Amino acid sequence: MRLGADRARPLDWAIVGLVVIVGFAAIRHREAVAALEVGRREEAESFARILSSLSRSVSPDAILGAIVDELAEATGADHIVIARRRPDARVLDATLVSARPGVPDSATRLPIGDLEDAITADGEPIPADRIPRERQQIAERIAGRARQVYGLTNTLAAPLTSDDVVIGAIILSHRTPGSWSATTRRLLSGAAVEASAALSRAYSHRAAEAHASTDALTGLPNRRYFDEFCGLLAGRRRSGDGVGVLMIDIDKFKVLNDDHGHATGDEVLRAVGGAIVAAVREDDVPARYGGEEFVVLLRNPSPAIALEVGERVRASVASLELHRLGVAGVSVSVGVAVASQGDQPIGDLIAEADSALYRAKRAGRNRVIAA
Predict the structure, then answer these.
(1) Fold of 13-211
(2) Neighbours of 365 (CB within 10 A)
(3) CA dist list (Å): 122 to 119, 131, 132, 161
(4) b/e per residue, 87-112, with b = 16+ CB within 10 A?
(5) 0.85 exceeded by the pTM?
(6) Average pLDDT over residues 139-151
(7) Angle, CA 81 vertex, CA 79 and CA 85 arms, to 5°
(8) What pLDDT is recorded for position 48?
(9) How far apart are alpha carbons 167 and 110 in whole angstroms?
């Protein structure tokens, strides 16, 4: 009122100024809160897209491809490097994916020591339970190697793990200097955790599939795998594709088991399986069919070649040195069948080869007979 009546005092003006400042600050605070909520919502949406992508991915490459696409969009990184150990080898593969158009992906191998060498202090390895940051330190060590190899500058890394073991790292790179935002750090950390879980599931699935399709004793494909392979092949055969089958049975195996025991019998089965693998051609598919019986699917053989491969199998087994097992030697009988028509079912060939096998048995064993 005093301001309106031109009777304002300095204190009145001070109060008005304070009110204006507080009001302006309140408006800015509300805008900041709204921006933060928008940022968190965008972060949550980006993370949800990553999880959705991972849930649809079943192979390790698909999993990593999904997180690369989402991280590039959500973080604004110029480059993303995925480094991971192959599950079946001591190799650390690294792939750089650029978010810049026209820049191709680049793959290389990094020293496995960057992943496997223990973090040390005073020259002594530190137990993992005493180093909360050990996994992050390994990821940063891999990032340092990636900077050298790819010429990167500003990087941010998070570890990839499987069964509580570090198997690699996800690395973001930006050309401009400066610290990475808290949002980007959270996104990378969350993506690495979810990717690690997805990779563990994928590797476990692969191991289970391999276990289900492999004979545990000989390491050869088992009958289930062989039947499935034949089914797939039947659907893809062209008119000119030829196939053949070898049915192989160890002679007098029951007597060998009775005389020397099942442990020795198992060793003989392993040895025979190895001899068969060594004798067949690269494109042929050997498998343990059951008990002491083996089968080989021959790809595009002529009748003469099929007999030749069968004879090589017989000779390879006959030459096995088994004296260390107390066994003088072992032989196999082989039945051979080759498709006379391009559309002849493989099941029919197996039956024909099996019939030829029993003729070989009746003819005195240790021989190859064609259907």
Answers:
(1) Beta-Lactamase (3.30.450)
(2) 14
(3) 10, 14, 18, 26
(4) eeeeebebbbbbbeeeeeeeeeebee
(5) no
(6) 93
(7) 175
(8) 53
(9) 13
Contacts of 273 (CB under 8 A, 6+ apart): 215, 218, 219, 220, 286, 288, 294
- Residue 192 in tokens: 């690495």
Which residues, other chains included, contact 14 with Cβ-Cβ below 8 Å and sequence gap of 6+? none
Span 311-331, pLDDT tens digits: 999 999 999 999 999 999 999
For residues 50 and 170, which has the higher predicted lDDT (pLDDT)? Answer: 170
pLDDT tens digits along 23-49:
776 667 666 555 545 555 555 555 555
Q: Are 337 and 356 in contact (CB under 8 A)?
A: yes
Q: Do domains 13-211 and 223-370 have the same CATH topology?
A: no
Which pLDDT tens digit goes with each residue over 162-214?
877 889 999 999 888 888 988 888 888 888 888 888 777 777 766 666 667 88
* Domain spans in the chain, listed from the N-terminal domain onward: 13-211, 223-370
Question: If pLDDT is split at 50, 70 and 90, which confidence band does 55 have?
Answer: very low
Domain 223-370, what fold? Alpha-Beta Plaits (3.30.70)
Q: Which residues pair with 159 in a beta bridge?
A: 169
What is the C-alpha to C-alpha distance for residues 129 and 159, in angstroms, rounded to an integer?
16
Residue 278 has pLDDT above 70, yes or no: yes
**Computed over its alpha carbons, how large is the radius of gyration of the chain?**
34
